[in-house]
Amino acid sequence: METRLTLRPGQNGTRKLAERFGKRLIRVRYRYDEERRKRYTTVELIVAESDWAPRARKPRASRPPDEMVLVRVAFGEEGLRSKLKALGALWRPRVKLWELPWGAVRALAIEDRVVQP
To answer: Are residues 72 and 41 part of one domain?
Structure first.
């Protein structure tokens, strides 16, 4: 079965359903079943509403892009090591970690590998 069209309330093809379901209507989808040669109209509705308070998030410590950080990279990760070298990272043999600017860490999306000194 294939969904070919997804519409929001108010768009052409949703008028009757919008009248029927009102503000509870979120989406209308037209699905096609080639095997049975059928078209199905499905709706997405709000069925319940309740108050919700999001948890307070810890503020992220923002770092300047030029701040140097240490990153752990496994020996077998040659591809990542070559990317680090291309970005000017330095190998620190005493601690067995790579040192590079925070901006490069963000560019490579390896923030989870940063090690605190």
So the answer is: no
Supply the pLDDT for residue 61.
Answer: 66
Give the pair of three-digit tokens for residue 81: 């090591």
26-83 confidence digits (pLDDT tens): 999 999 999 999 999 999 999 999 999 988 877 766 788 889 999 999 988 999 999 9
Tokens linked to 94: 């005493």
Give the integer Cα–Cα distance in Å for 63 and 93.
25
CA distance 102 to 65: 5
Interacting residues of 89 by C-beta distance below 8 A, sequence separation 6+: 71, 98, 99, 100, 104
| DSSP β-bridge partners for residue 45 | 25
Which of 102, 115, 97, 98 lies closest to 67 in space, CA to CA?
Answer: 102
With H, G, I as helix, E, B as strand and everything else as coil, classify residue 67.
Answer: coil
pTM higher than 0.90, yes or no? Answer: no
Looking at the structure of the chain, the number of domains it has is 2
What's the domain range around 12?
A: 2-45
